[in-house]
Amino acid sequence: MKTIRASIIGFGAVGQGVAKVILSKSDYLKNIGIDLKVVAVADSRTAAVDSNGLDLSAVLSRKTEQGTVGTDNISGTEIIKTIDHELVIETTPTNIDTGGVGLDNMVAAFEKGIDVVTSNKGPLALKYCELGEIAKSSGSQFKFEATVGGAMPIINLASETLAGNKILSMEGILNGTCNYILCRMMEEHAPYEQMVAEAQELGIAETDPTYDVEGIDTACKLVILANAIFGMNATYKDVTVTGITKITPEALLMAHNDGYDIKLIGEVSGSKINVAPKLVPKDNPLAVGGTLNVASLQTDISGPVTITGRGAGSIETASAILSDIISIYRE
Amino acid sequence: MKTIRASIIGFGAVGQGVAKVILSKSDYLKNIGIDLKVVAVADSRTAAVDSNGLDLSAVLSRKTEQGTVGTDNISGTEIIKTIDHELVIETTPTNIDTGGVGLDNMVAAFEKGIDVVTSNKGPLALKYCELGEIAKSSGSQFKFEATVGGAMPIINLASETLAGNKILSMEGILNGTCNYILCRMMEEHAPYEQMVAEAQELGIAETDPTYDVEGIDTACKLVILANAIFGMNATYKDVTVTGITKITPEALLMAHNDGYDIKLIGEVSGSKINVAPKLVPKDNPLAVGGTLNVASLQTDISGPVTITGRGAGSIETASAILSDIISIYRE
Question: Bridge-partner residues for B307, per DSSP?
């Protein structure tokens, strides 16, 4: 049995999802030789630290009831720099302009030789190669399946499960919010604005939906895939981005009558990284409905391999984080 | 760089596919730290042995031109027992009545502490648990992604990539031949016998198609999945099996008019292992066409995850063998 001391830095929906999943899977983890002990949790204002392992149920309750995780007056970055542990679970919010505090946290962890598992796209969309190099030179493990596709394990599928294949290209739907809006516009023959409002009411779209509907979220994910799967040394500025805000119900209907859906498709092919609405034949594996994500990999010797799963949700994203943790520490 | 000495035991379509893939991926393998040297190849009658590593191009040419792999008079099982090497690539034909020579080969390898990667379903459908125990007690690695779904990596997806999840149930199409026949019966509104004949002409069905069309092949794969993913200690006799020979074009058309396809679906759910034709809604991820395979895993915390890929083909199956080899020896 290996004892792994971990911090959870960022305690919004995903961070709390991770805490819940660690609690519910504690026995399973011990069965496969991993004693995962969370020694620190930080949100943007407060922290809880206990070198013997925190009571995660109590931390979760406190967060729900009082909006804080504890009384310790220490930032996430300081926790990483000063507290002995092996793993940082980095779940602070994505900032794609600067990388935000997540970038500082990852660098701080790697400088101490600490492993990082993250769902935070921003630092990877901006500084993938630099982060990979710092991690490598310090001997830290760096896993980020949760940054792309939620519970759909596209990164590890391509780089580990299909390791005998060279991946030639990838196309897919990497944003469930856009997929939901487009599906509903077609179903209801309703305008974009109306279905964005519905998605916001259901919690599927943010109050400010720009990041999703303009294709920015998909573009960030494509940058991560371009680097992780295709070794491209790409950043956000290398992506051509068109969102879904100009799509009309009339366009969707015309496509439908010819046997097509309109989907926001992200693709990495050759040196091209592109996100734009595209016609997809209704019987194509990419034509998935609702908030599902899908990715189709073209391989050199196995042909196409397509995977579909839930692209979002705090527990689904936490499951990807947990799978990454297991892949690092399982004996 | 790790030098791995391997034998290829069984040199039909899959064995030859493995040799071709090893040849074409030799540089890639060295780049990830694996120097894979094939020191012996055996078909059912002849063998080629060279402790310095065989010239696989020459062995492939000889097999094509003369029908033999070499002049050495030694069986595959004797190779395993007497020649120093680390890995047996077991690609002899499937025998689901006795396990055939493949079963002897695997046991012989494990008794010497040799790792086994295989595409041979028979021994696993009959003696999964026994083989797993012998491998474990001798410290041998035992990988068999290629036994199910060809290039569709369902076993490693479930047990490694999705390791944070408990897999609750699985359903899928695991036999491309049946899927092809059913799709073509619908498209041509043609009887079963006619489309079997077409599939035979195209090399998609065997001269004796019983093994595929009666659901036996799917059942074997389900047994392997029931053991590998669900820990069920199942054998072939635990599967309820119905094939596709009674399906009529009229039944397919009736289903079609209600928005359904008829597919040969294998499922593992609770303690039930079952293969039978089922109605599948046309917009369900399982409704794939042609010779594709598909598997949908229901997970505890990520919901459904579905994967689709080519279920057969010698190079596709060889790619699964190569991915298994890489997962064992990659540094």
Answer: A307, B295
The per-residue pLDDT for A102 is: 98
pLDDT digits (tens, 9 = 90+) for A129-145: 999 999 999 999 999 99
CA dihedral A96, A99, A102, A104 (to 10 degrees): 180
User: How many residues are present in chain B?
Assistant: 331
Question: Best of B183, B283, B306 to disrupt the A interface by mutation (most A CBs within 10 Å)?
Answer: B306
Contact residues on chain A for B322, CB-CB shorter than 8 A: 163-164
Question: Measured at the alpha carbon of residue B274, what is the angle toward residues B271 and B277, in degrees to the nearest 5?
Answer: 150
CA B311, CA B145: separation in Å to the nearest integer?
Answer: 12
> DSSP letter at A94?
P
Question: Could you report the per-residue pLDDT of A240-257, keeping only the tens digit for each?
Answer: 999 999 999 999 999 999
pLDDT per residue over B217-264, tens digit each? 999 999 999 999 999 999 999 999 999 999 999 999 999 999 999 999
Q: What is the ipTM of this complex?
A: 0.93
Q: What's CA A41's distance to the chain center, in Å?
A: 20
Where residue A322 falls (left for φ over 0; alpha for ψ -120 to 50; beta otherwise) is alpha
Residue B99 and residue B127 in contact, taking contact as beta carbons nearer than 8 Å: yes
Strands B2-9 and B87-90 come out as parallel
Q: Is A2 one of the annotated active-site residues of the chain?
A: no
Secondary structure class of A292 (helix, strand, coil): strand
Determine the Cα–Cα distance for residues A285 and B29; give it in Å rounded to an integer.
31
Give the sheet arrangement for strand B2-9, strand by strand: B47-49, B34-42, B2-9, B87-90, B115-118, B142-143
